[in-house]
Structure formats: structure tokens, C-alpha cells
Design brief:
By secondary structure, the protein is of the alpha/beta class. The chain is built from 14 helices and twelve strands.
Length: 353
Amino acid sequence: MVNARSAVPTDPGADDAASRRPTMSQVAALAGVSVQTVSNVLNTPGIVRPETAAKVRDVIRELDYRPNHAARQLRTKRSGLIGVRVESGSTDGVFDRFLHALTACAADRDYRVLLYTARDDDQELASYDDLMQRWDLDGFVLSHTHEGDRRAAHLMERGIPCVSFGRDWDGAGTHPWVDVDGAQGTRKATGHLLAQGHRRIAFLGWPTDSRVGNDRLAGYRAAMQAAGLPDLPVGHCRNAVDDARLAAHDLLRRTDATALVCVSDLVALGALAAVQLRQATPGAPAVEVVGFDDTALAEGAGISSVAQPLTAAAEQSLRLLMDRIDRPTTVDPPTRLLLAPDLVVRTRRTPPS
């Protein structure tokens, strides 16, 4: 296999780094495409066939080709920057993994992610004008969507492209979004427990005003109904270990469940603490716990968990945003993508008698 980097000719008499820097022409030659195609991959990837774009990006990475950002900005009238708000208080690492994947995907398209903070949506709305004036961002990737979320509509009304990782819970249909099918995830988790012989399966979720939590609860209920079993009383708690431990203790006391499907890994960790305390009592039945998000918490505790396809979510979010940036006047309806999660099975306990 030819090493593309070694195929880049250099001038042995040149001392400056710029003369040794790979050029767009060299990328085009090694990829077997035109210079215009390379330019399109970097600037308007939506018009390039996916297989061709992938081949060009492979060569770009191999050569470590870096376009002249200033020249590109003058030519394309774009900043090459995407804005993403960093949420405070996140403890499970899910958003961090999505952000890492988004940053890597953006770099493949010669884009950079600009991070900003806001204590709430109102402060974020107030900061958009300042962000645009200071950095002239090409678009935004929104996250942590919720009922009554005004951010996307605010940006779209001003002609600023945006996409959200998280669905439009109000169904306004103003912008493209990518989300993970939480209900499908909890259906898979509940189905796994049913296949292990469990029949008394309970659900420990977030407060009822959480649309994401309610979506995951719906999947559990659908699986129990499909199995011809009644769903047990539901427990609710904040996304905190101590809160979950107390709620799980009460839920087990009320339901005598042999398995718990939890709305998140943080909740599952609290539930596991309650289960371990309960099983210290002689004769207490074994209780299996399944989490959601497949974080390091679940891996460390050795419990099964629903894994969100965060890399795919980042890739699709960026693709939809770039399409809006490339076609600012499009009248096409916004694309909505619901991605399927997978269950990572880590434990197989003895089925209940």
C-alpha cells in the first residue's frame, strides 16, 4: 500500500514549512479527482457523492492537508465555525461523548466548534446576536431540547442555520433534528429481561415533566403490554444517585420486582445500591438492574445498559447542518432522524423462580 504522505513531493532546498505543506492539487491527484471536487468536499460537501467525499477525506487525513483558513474565509464568505452550548452540571458524560464526536466530524470538513455557555435558554437567546457579531458563526448545533424550546425558531427566523441533537418536542417542524429512539431502547432492555425469565419488571424514571424520560417509560410499557403483562407502579427521581437509591428502595418495597429498567445509568447506579442493601437480608430475591446510556458508570458497575449511537448522531447532525449552510434558501421540509440504540448486555443472573 502506498503511503500517501511519502508521495508528496518536497523541495529539499526549501526551509520554510509552507513550501512543504501539502496542496489541494496533491490531494486531488492522489484521490484521483479534480481540484474542484476537493474544494467541494471542503466547502459544499452536500453536492459530492458520499463515496467520492469519503475517498477525498481519507487522502486529506493521510496528507494532513490543512487549507489556508483565511483564504477560504475570503473565498467562501464563511467563518468555518459552528456554535455549541456547553451545559453545566452534566455528570454522566453522554454530551461530552457527543461533543467529542461532533468536533472530530467537523474537523474532517475543515470546520471548528466554538463552545459557549449560558445558564438557561433565555440567556442563550440573548447571547446569539453577540456570538454572531463577534464570530460570524455559520450555524449552531443545539442540544438538550425540551417542551417549549424557543431556540431553534429564534435562529431560523433570523436566517441562521441550526440543527438539534434532540427532537422538536412541540412538533413545530421548523428545523432539522437528530435524536435517539429512547422508547426503542427501553423496549429492548425490557425484552432482554423478559427473555431471562423475569415477569415482575418495574421502571425507575425521571419526574413526569421530562419528555425524554416519558419517551423511555413508554418503551417499557409497550414491551410489558406486548408480553401480556401488567406494568408495575413506576418510580420517579432526579438524575442523582442518592435520589435514585431512595426511590428504588421504595419501588422494590411496593412492587417486589425482580428487575428494574432505569431511565439512565446514574439512576441505575442508585438503584443498584438499593438492590445490594436489600439483598443483604437473608432470603431476599435477586434483582437485575438495566441502565440507559452505556456510560463508564454502567461498565464499572457491570450492568447492562442501552447504548446511544452518539458518533452516528454527531455525523448526521453535522450533515444536516451543512446541508442548511450550503442551501440557505431551501424550501425542503426539515429532515428528522430517529436513530436506533443497542443494548449492551453485561450480566446474566439466575432467572427468578
